[in-house]
Amino acid sequence: MSVSSLKGGVGKTSVTMGLASAALQRGVRTLVIDLDPHADSTTGLAVSRGAGTEAGQLLRDAKKAQVTEHTVRSGWVDFLPEEERAEAVLDVVPGSALSATFDRPDIRPRDMRRLRTLLEGVTGYDLVLVDCPPSLAGLTRIAWAASTQVLLVAEPSLFSVAGTERTMRAIRMFSNEYAPQLTQAGVVVNRARADSAEHEYRLLEMERLYKDKLMLPVLEENAYWQQIQGAAYPVHHWPGDQARDLAKSFDQLLRQLV
Ligand SMILES: Nc1ncnc2c1ncn2[C@@H]1O[C@H](COP(=O)(O)OP(=O)(O)O)[C@@H](O)[C@H]1O
Ligand SMILES: [Mg+2]
């Protein structure tokens, strides 16, 4: 499942993190592939720099590489009770600036299939999440070509709604041309503020535009989110009611996706 949006900063990485945390909690065996050259989800998942083999390197060696030999275990697993750790699966293909070499707008179809090739025959996971960079250039295409679903993330703002519309069109075109297996999982709305009339208006607009593709619950602006991510914690293990509500929202989203 690719987690995508045209715009940066809307919450792709945050949604990837939240779903990964919910998956770890529920025993859904998960692999997170960090395709964004900024490697934020690698940091957020408590993977130390230099561990494993970076996504960019694996993409270069796509024909030869065995993904499962190059993944790193997320440090989040240590948050589980000791007796659950051995069974838990939350692995990461770490990101780094190396992947940027594939982020050309004119990527060749041959290069586009590199992640798909890498994931062929990989077993042992119930869910593979690909955290994408904020563009529709090479890396996002590489992610889509390997995915069965795209999960879009949008903010309830004018430009984000317009960007999501464009992305949905791009997904339809892409799946017609290169990836018949690809479907739209839905749109997650992030950073909504209950006290904003503009947000309320945009939410109604999104309901009208996306209908059953609009995923609920909507994720609210939550001041703790940056602290949680900064500390590289799984949201399900952050103390306090505010984080608990956020964690529950991700449980609900995950249930609809897996
Ligand atoms: N619901 C939210 N409430 C508060 N801050 C958020 C929320 N979602 C994301 N953020 C913060 O906004 C910034 C951008 O989010 P991020 O997930 O990195 O976006 P993207 O991956 O789409 O670029 C991060 O610092 C993140 O902690
Ligand atoms: Mg990101």
From TrEMBL:
Ranges that cross the membrane: none
Highest taxon of source: Bacteria
Alphabetical list of InterPro entries matching this protein: AAA_dom, DNA_Partitioning_ATPase, P-loop_NTPase
Boundaries of every AAA domain copy: 2-182
SUPFAM superfamilies the record matches: P-loop containing nucleoside triphosphate hydrolases
Pfam families tied to this protein: AAA_31
Entry protein name: Chromosome partitioning ATPase
Organism whose genome encodes this protein: Nesterenkonia cremea
